Amino acid sequence: MCGIVCYNGKKSAVEVILNGLKSLEYRGYDSSGISVVTDKIETLKRKGKLKNLIDEIDKIDNNANIGIGHIRWATHGEPNEINAHPQVSQDGKFSVVHNGIIENYRELKSELEDEGYNFKSTTDTEVVVALISHYYTDDLLEAVKKAIARLKGAYALGIISEYEKDKLIAVRNESPLILAKCDDGIILASDIPSVLKYTKDVVYLENGDIVEIDKDSYTIYDKNFEKVDRDIKKINMTLEQASKGGFEHFMLKEIYEQPEVVKKTLEVNLKENKIDFSDNSIDQDKLKSIDKVYIVACGTAFHAGEVGKVAIEKLAKIPVITDIASEFRYNDPFIDENTLVILISQSGETADTLAALRESKKKKATVLAVTNVVGSSIAREADKVIYTLAGPEIAVASTKAYISQLVTVIMLALDFAKKLDKIDDETYSNYIAELKTIPGKISEVLKSESTVKEIAKAIKDDSSMFFIGRGLDFLSVKEGALKLKEISYIHTEAFPAGELKHGSIALIEKNTPALSVITQSKLAEKTISNVQELVTRGAKIFTITVEGNENMADFSEKIVFVPKTLEMLYPILSVIPEQLLGYYTSLEKGLDVDKPRNLAKSVTVE
Ligand code: M6R
């Protein structure tokens, strides 16, 4: 997620904006920038840390009273100075900062190019400033209205122009934006922490709102361009609470962001109900020459890859081998020019995954990266890159990145299946329709929080816990077991439910905790039998299953139900209570949830 801070008032805009951006630094970003209005628009942008911008801030006028600032987490285009925000129009008269994604930017870009506009960046945002410049005659507000009428997607915008030197305009559509009223000016910001140093009085702008700010007054227009009054609310949060969006920890905040992450992944990669990764995916001809796929990753990303294997084999009918990145290159993998290697990595910097990428390229495979960080090493070196759209993930325990990886690999499987003509139209459409219901269904599952808290209380003093499931449920419990162990330090082990009786069941004794996930209809009966084997030996059972399945009531101490969906999509729902279980158990034990011992967010050593 990028961050916006804009100011119009009596103070130094540079000072207010830089303080606001500093308060967002904790989230990670790849570049930053600021524009101010003096007798012209002055802009400074730098790649990397905010310090790089601050070190050279004297290059723009520190006395200017109106300006727009941004820290960027790239989604379109490499993280570099040209792609950093603000984006300035080709004539230098307009400057824009933007959070969100303009879905139809390609069409708009080619339309403006046909009219002779010269784009410099590869961002979607430059289209916004180009449109405003295109529509401007003598009224900035009118030009903005005309420009946003052409936009599809999510956007929060801050806009200034050399033609109207006292004016700051902002627009909110889906992406968050607040207006903060200070004694000596107005701040517009994407996030509360950016304004707390100056005021606690904010207006939460609504979708479709346009704000016109002159030096000491502002006017809000709603989506019908009618003037509206919006209430000023008092913020009762500390800076630390505000950084976490009001949640106690980043992990919980990120768990709750998951419906939005799925929504965004679908919005960006679906065009007219068809999956469209544009040329970031593998084209049909190349796909036809592929005789096997390797999916290689570490940790949570590997667990997403295992679901990807099932999806690609089932839907696209291509054989898939999964391998842990640290093992892959020592396994002498069967790779040649007919192999597709898919690497999954949130950070895009994991050393083992990067080494697997290089090994695959050496052996002439086609390499497709699925990563969350634009311009990361893995993204740069892969032949093709599909970006997950989770936004920055701060908690060491991965949650929203995993969900975005799951949705992306399932969409990739559908994309391959369609291109290879392995899926009929009805099945394809069913998948798309059902994927669209997933954000709402995740929100439903999140309501199980209170039951999960009770499970956390019941297991917090245990030293070890079993996780069991079959098929896709086994893949779900592998992720659930990792989540619990990495932040609660309880030893966990995930088993295919039928495998326990081949040795490990010897460990079950009275009150040994076990979590079973049962969502796959053809395997449910079998897993239930395995659960009974554990019950007989005294285990205390907790279950995650599909609503309507009452079969587990007699065996389970607590049950969490997930809404019905397609079998392939259950891992997206069943992992949510598992993530919550990790979180609440860690909390019960008084541990450092976001920064567990011995772990780093990005593992850049082999
Ligand atoms: O950045 P990556 O996705 O490549 O990281 C891979 C693993 O290190 C990561 O998923 C790790 O397992 C998480 N901490 C699990 O929550």
Summarize the structure.
By secondary structure, the chain is of the alpha/beta class.
Description:
With 606 residues, the protein is an alpha/beta fold. The protein has three domains: 3-243, Aminohydrolase, N-terminal nucleophile (Ntn) domain (Glutamine Phosphoribosylpyrophosphate, subunit 1, domain 1), CATH 3.60.20; 261-442, Rossmann fold (3-Layer(aba) Sandwich); 447-588, 3-Layer(aba) Sandwich (Rossmann fold), CATH 3.40.50.10490. It has 19 helices and 27 strands. The structure holds 5-amino-5-deoxy-1-O-phosphono-D-mannitol (M6R). The site of 5-amino-5-deoxy-1-O-phosphono-D-mannitol has 16 residues, from helix 10 and helix 17.
Task: Kindly give the count of domains.
Answer: 3
What is the rounded Rg? 25 Å
Ligands, deduplicated: 5-amino-5-deoxy-1-O-phosphono-D-mannitol
Amount of beta strand: 15-25%
Q: How many strands, what sense, and barrel or not for the largest sheet?
A: 8 strands, antiparallel
Class by helix and strand content? Answer: alpha/beta
Q: What count of helical segments does DSSP give? A: 19
How would you state the average pLDDT, rounded? 94
Uncertain regions: pLDDT < 50 for 5+ in a row? Answer: none
What is the strand tally?
A: 27
End-to-end gap: 29 Å
CATH architecture of the largest domain: 4-Layer Sandwich
The 3D shape can be described as globular
Write out the strand line-up for the largest beta sheet, numbering strands in chain order.
Answer: 3-2-4-1-10-9-11-15
Which topology of the largest domain does CATH recognise? Glutamine Phosphoribosylpyrophosphate, subunit 1, domain 1
